[in-house]
Amino acid sequence: AVELLPALWKECGDYQEAISAYRRALLSQWNLDNDCCARIQKDFAVFLLHSGVEASPPSLGSQIEGSYIPRNNLEEAILLLMILLKKFNLGKAKWDPSVFEHLTFALSLCSQTSVLAKQLEEVMPGVFSRIERWNTLALSYSAAGQNSAAVNLLRKSLHKHEQPDDLVALLLAAKLCSEEPSLAAEGS
């Protein structure tokens, strides 16, 4: 029932009540299992990111002294998604790849790709393939202006024993190498 109430409010078109229902579900002691709580967190984060409804910040009365209070939908969604990633990394919830996709979208919106790289580095080994991890990290570092780190990761990814013909990695490597005269020969 706790999971259904926000969905019912959304169906009725009362988005502020849906937001309140999500927050109550996450803040109250409902004795929810970790996977149920993770689903609610993800659904709420996705709603905050994609609904187009501006949620008012959480009330100060429900906050613990000194805790962080998100100022807008984007901050609240990022916070929820980062908490979810931490739960996945600790084995407290089942891995859901869409959470990382939503976090990528959210952090890209606010130009925080270096934070995205840090989150990706903390994801447990085996969740992403080595090549996928290296390429995503390279893209994140490149967007954050850390081209040297990005090029080093692309060197690993494009090594002859890995995936030397990966088109996306080749294009990013060519772009980065064309911007740095000392690497121009490498990018061709």
From TrEMBL:
Gene3D superfamilies: Tetratricopeptide repeat domain (1.25.40.10). SUPFAM superfamilies: TPR-like. It comes from the Eukaryota. Transmembrane segments: none annotated. InterPro entries: NPG1-like, TPR-like_helical_dom_sf. This is AT2G43040-like protein. It comes from Neslia paniculata.
